[in-house]
Amino acid sequence: MTTFGERLTAATATRGPLCVGIDPHPGLLDAWDLPRTVAGLERFAMTAVEALGPEVAVIKPQSAFFEAFGSAGVAVLEKVLAGCREAGALVLLDAKRGDIGSTMAAYAAAYLTDDSPLAADALTVSPYLGFGSLRPALDAAAVSGRGLFVLALTSNPEGPELQHAVAGERSVAQTIADHAAAENAGASPLGSVGLVVGATIGRTGVDLSAVNGPLLAPGIGAQGATAADLRTVFGDDLSAVLPTTSREVLGAGPDVAALRAAARKSVDQVQAALG
Ligand SMILES: O=c1ccn([C@@H]2O[C@H](COP(=O)(O)O)[C@@H](O)[C@H]2O)c(=O)[nH]1
Question: What DSSP character marks residue 117?
């Protein structure tokens, strides 16, 4: 069994270090001249899969926009997950799950086990019920060769109030980074427990050097960060950075060739910034 860290390393080496999000915002459906219905959602999402699936290393569907349409929207999400897989892209489901351990076990069954229709290569999770509450997801991911991205320093302006707070001698974010490092210890070339660290946040003040896992960097484009900001945020830890952007690329649609061109432009920009 290959690990998520191994598959991610291979995918970014081949396709470049970029994740593109599928975020079917109502305004984007309008811009693509699609109805704000399940049919519009499906057309939007599957066009994005057709354009980006053969092109980028990782695709990140944002679960919220699918859940907003109820069970029919979740059925579209299932098609997106299968379509990304068929096209050769890794799929990171952005659902930011986090709960008490016994409920976390149910989330792990939903997203991190082979026979689930919602299984993804990796899942975003929230550690704010305590990192240890993620244990069922950590164990399920390890057993099935999947990955997790743990929220550490999020891209939104409200994040620092909680994430920079000092508890004991370390900031909350540093504690999360240290837990991830412990999970990834000894993994090569990269562990499968990543962190989310926003490209918008400036200098992190957090030592990420021991994490040994992928660092997902949202915030480029619509949230105001640029590829050039990655160097400021990550300093010497650029090698494991996986920038992710959604609206910046999706805004180029609905034309498939235009979406691909936008993704390629973003890959070139982040490759230049990461060196
Ligand atoms: O800290 C975080 C964690 C997750 N996100 C998600 O990434 C995308 C960003 O979309 P853009 O259109 O590129 O702004 C979205 O799905 C967020 O939920 C984040 O932005 N920041």
Answer: T
